[in-house]
Structures are given as C-alpha cells and as structure tokens.
Amino acid sequence: MQIDQGDFILSEAELSAALSDVGRTPNGLGIGPIEGIDVSGGTGDSLEPSVRPVFDRAMTTLVAPTKIARFHYTVADESISRSLLAWAPGADDDVVALVGTGENRRVSNRSQSSLRLLISRLLAANDTLIEEGISLFLSTGAIMVFLAIAEHLRLVRYHAIQTHATPYNIFNQEEIEARLAAAGVEDFRWPLLFLDKVMPAPIAGALTSKDVDAAMDELILAGLVDSVDETAQLRVYELAGPGVRICDGLLHEVAKVALGISAFRDDGEIGHEVMLLVRSGFDLFLFDLAGQQGAIASLGASSLDELMKGALRPPSALPTEGDALSAPEQHAASSASSSAPSTLSCPNCGLALRADARFCSQCGAAIVSTPAPGRKAAKVCPVCGHSNRANSDFCVQCGTELPES
Questions:
Q1: 273 and 141 in one domain?
Q2: What is the C-alpha separation between 12 and 17, in angstroms, rounded?
Q3: Which among 237, 245, 192 has a CA at the least distance from the CA of 217?
Q4: Same domain, 201 and 68
Q5: N or C terminus: which one in the chain shows less Cβ crowding within 10 Å?
Q6: Cα(210)–Cα(192) distance, rounded to whole angstroms?
Q7: Residues linked to residue 75 through DSSP beta bridges, in sequence order
Q8: Torsion of CA 66, 195, 295, 387, to 10 degrees
Q9: Above 50 in pLDDT, residue 330?
Q10: Residues of 281-319 as b/e, b for ≥16 C-beta within 10 angstroms?
Q11: Helix (H, G, I), strand (E, B) or coil at 316
Q12: What is the mean pLDDT of the chain?
C-alpha cells in the first residue's frame, strides 16, 4: 500500500484484505472482499498511527455506507473514469471515493464542493451555457426509449458517413427495441450504453414491446416524436419539436456524466435515482430517472450546481417518503426560499409552485416551461422542420434561410 497526497493506493488483494479486516458484512449498499482473492494476510501495520483511523473509517464506509453513487464520466469519448462514492452515517461534507487506476485502486476522501466543481468543469458549465427552456415530465420508460431513438439515429448517421449517403431520420419500433436489447454492451461512447452501467438493473429486458409502444405514444403526446405512417404493419416515426434539439445534443455530445444514486430510506428500503448529463457544443441536457417517473430538461450553470447540491447531499437529509430519491426536487427547493408568489400548479400532483419553478418540490415532476420574457422561441425551419437556435439565420439541417421571428 502507498499514500499519494493523502490518498491510499492499494492493489486488489490489499483492498480485499482491508475490507475483510472491517469485520462486517456489506449492508446492501456496501462492497466486500473481491471473490477469489486471498485475504488471510490482512493489511498489516504498514500505516502510520496518525493515518490509520482515517483509513479504517474509509474502509468501514465502503462496507456499510448509508448512501452510494456510481459516478462515471467521459470527455470527448477518449476514455472513461468510473468511481464509487460512499457516505458514512452522520457524514457532513466527507465522501469516500474508490477509483480504479490501472491494476490498483485509489481510495480518497472528497468534499461535496470538490465533486460539484469537478462535474461543473467536466461539463464546461459556465456563464455562456444558456438554458433553452426545455423541461418535460416523462415516465422512465419513455426516457429510455427516447435515448434508444437517439442511439438508432446515431447509428444511421455513422452508416451514412461510411457509405457517403444522406442519413434518414425515420425509425420504427422494431429498430428501437433492438437498441434497447443491446444496452448491456460495454461501450461508453454511446449514451444509452453509458447510462446502463449505473442503473440499479439492466436496461436490456426492462421494457416489453407493449411498454415501448406505450412509451412511443407518451413521446408523441409530449411533442418529442411524430407518427409518420400508421397504415404500415410497423408504425413509422420521426423526431419533432424539442425532440430534434435534444437528439442533436446527444448526437454531438462532447462530455457526459452519469450518477447512479442509491440510499436507505426511513422505511429501511433502498431508493434509487439515475441521472445522465450530456453536454453538447451549445446545450446541457439532464435525463433524470427516479422510480417510475423522470424528467428531461435543459440546464444552465446555476441549475446544474443546485441539482448537484441535492444529489451529493449527506444521507441524513434524504427524503423520508416516496419510492425513490428526487434530485429535481432539490432544484425546485432552491427557488422556494424566495418570496415570489405561487402562480403555477404541478401537472402531476397539483401543488402550487413559484412562477419560475423548474421541478415540483412535492413529487419531483418537471414543469413544462415557456421561453422566459425577452427570450425568443426556437426557429423552426419551414422546409425540413428542424428546430434551430433563436438567433439562427439559416437552418443547420438543410441550409434554408429562416424567417424573422
């Protein structure tokens, strides 16, 4: 074992021995010794007495945490970093991080603020990032199907590049089901496959054909997808409205972060929430899956920071009700401290909300928003229907000159 700037560097055998020395069985969230590795030698007394308590507390936290997060990120699809974050009972601002570094494992203590800063830097969340006003409440099944649609259209685009052809932007249910079935493949460059690795259960097999059909109808009602041909044996679809914008962000992503959060609720059960954050050249999109409900939203820098404050908060502050954690709820709560009047109602539970609320503070539902005063809506191309930025003069899809709004 080595110590590097306060971090502990261990081999797999040393980590297994240290976890075994804790003398406790993992509590359902924690990890134990790696199977097949001899731990009889223990970790010995190689550590100085002054750092031994810090090391022992980190090992105990990994074995019996009250909250964990699988934290994966990639920039420019060059490589992937995978970490396990663990919170100890009564933890305030101390998070234990376990990261793979080649053949070794690095164990470190991180603060919530340092993790928020890392995520902000990874996603280039600065003042130039503009929220596009996209905020949709959807089922988790519909969100997974939408990600599968983007995956399929990305595959079509790559094939068109190889064959020097024009990509087609229509799809059918059978093609989307094929993408969902392949979600378990190990390839971090694809958002759906990347998301799958932090899910509490595999995406492949999670949705039946009936579920996918219902999700398609939900996406049509949300204005993300249109049905092109309902007379054929297989219904044919195309992207619509904000669906085009979101899919473009996924097709041209430059960085992405996935957080799979699990924690004990007051009733002793484990709640789960999964967040996928995708940064494109212009936008930052959140795909949030919590229990059976979720949200797709565009975020700015301040919204991202508030969201991460909720996601990375200590377990002592977790919600006591509901089937899952709700990070969107924390984003709304940050707005509730102001005295602005409530002028919106949640479309899901009916709770009265502030006029600028993005998420419901009671159920976590996303609040569909309209462009803020002074902000122009996206320009829709009259030829191909592509949604362009409000200040665009020409369509980025077909080159048509756009009318003044």
A1: yes
A2: 9
A3: 237
A4: no
A5: C
A6: 20
A7: 255
A8: 160
A9: no
A10: eebbbbbbbbbebbbbbbbbbebbbbbbbbbbbbbeebe
A11: helix
A12: 82
Is 241 inside a domain boundary? Answer: yes
Instruction: Tell whether 306 and 345 lie within a shared domain.
Output: yes
- Same domain (yes/no): 194, 79: no
DSSP 8-class letter at 121:
H
Range of the domain at 32: 2-110
Assess whether 106 and 139 both reside in one domain.
no
Where do the DSSP E strands lie in 78-222? 80-87, 95-101, 104-110, 135-139, 170-172
* pLDDT, tens digit (0-9, with 9 covering 90-100), for 21-40: 988 899 999 999 887 776 66
Start-to-end CA distance of the chain, whole Å, equals 64
Q: What 8-state DSSP symbol labels residue 394?
A: B
Per-residue confidence band for 230, with pLDDT thresholds at 50, 70 and 90: low
Same-domain status, 160 and 266: yes
Its sign, for the CA torsion 388, 150, 173, 135, is negative
Instruction: Report which secondary-structure segment, H or E, holds 237.
Output: strand 236-239
Alpha-helix residue ranges (DSSP H) falling in 7-65: 12-21, 52-63
Amino acid identity of residue 227, one-letter, is S
pLDDT at 9 over 80: yes
Task: Say if residue 173 is in the same domain as residue 76.
Answer: no
Sign of CA dihedral 393, 394, 397, 400: positive
Do the Cβ atoms of 215 and 296 come closer than 8 Å? Answer: no
Paired tokens of 313: 């908060």
- Tell whether 214 and 299 lie within a shared domain: yes
Residues 344, 350, 351, 357, Cα dihedral to 10° = -40
How many folded domains does the chain comprise? Answer: 2
Burial 377-402 (b: 16+ CB within 10 A, else e): ebbbbeeebbbbeeeeeebebeeeeb
- CA 253 to each of CA 124, 256, 280, 283, 363: distance values in angstroms, whole numbers, following the listed order: 12, 7, 4, 9, 30
* 352-354 vs 67-75, strand pairing mode: unpaired
The rounded distance, in Å, linking the Cα atoms of 319 and 323 is: 10
Q: Is the pLDDT of residue 111 over 70?
A: yes
The continuous run of DSSP H or E covering 271 comes out as strand 270-279
HSE at residue 269, side-chain half, CA atoms within 13 A, is 11
Q: Does residue 209 lie within any of the structural domains? A: yes
